[in-house]
Known about the structure:
alpha/beta, 11 helices, globular
Amino acid sequence: MSASIPSFSQTLEKHKLVLLRKPTEILQINMGLLCNQACKHCHLTAGPDRKEIMDIKTIDQVIDFQKKYSFKVVDITGGAPEMNPNLIYLVENISGLPDKVMLRSNLSALFDFTDDLLLSVLKKNRVIIVSSFPSLDQTQTDSQRGKGIFDKTIQALIMLNQHGYGQKGTGLELNLVSNPTGAYLPSSQEATEKRYRKILYKKWGIVFNNTFSFANMPLGRFKDWLKRSDNYDDYIAELYKNFNPCAVTDLMCRNLISVSWDGFLFDCDFNLAANLYKGTEKIHISQTETCSFENDTIAVDNHCYACTAGSGFT
């Protein structure tokens, strides 16, 4: 990074901000790095050749962890969590413990690897599906995520609509996540949602509940691409220029704790990608003794600028 840009810690200090965890309400579970895609923007460098995957023993420890702390929301992610053969076991045994369970899907994995049993389990437990859909432009999406992914994404959304997801009155929530396909900041969330809602319905009759628009994280494959294309310094500078101190108040890491596929604690999934353990201390969920994580220091690095640029990552 350019020497003229201060570290994220220095920027927090400049604005007299201290990043401490509030009451922790969200448990994020990373099911592993195995994925059917190898997206150019992936902060975790997930893909078909990755071997890291959460086993049953760790899943049972995660379920016990949820019982111990009573988090209000469970957020299941990956890789592609659908590719973990233990996903149904986790969903069936953790549902009912929190108020909500969310599944983050790249949609193509849901279409390719999901059978009727998984869909019926998701529906029965009212699991919220959070679907990654970077662009309404087929060329841009396929360029970022792989040839043919755009069509599979559309087919998956139609399939979810047919099962009631995103439809009024069903209680089955379907949300979309959009992110830029290059080294620039996302459009406003309001404008993005309006455009997605209009075009998806007009072209394919697709409906959904909400759209969220986030900046790409300068980690993993996206960081590698930024460096290869000589865009890294400029991208970090753009994030820094758009630093919003007001976004720090509601950052997701302030009320979330993340568990890796092997059971270790992180302040967020991005810090997991950066190998930056919770508070920089390596702790396994089976070793936790405290009854609260409130007021714990949150580990930061310069990738955190992506979460605090513009509207932020809340």
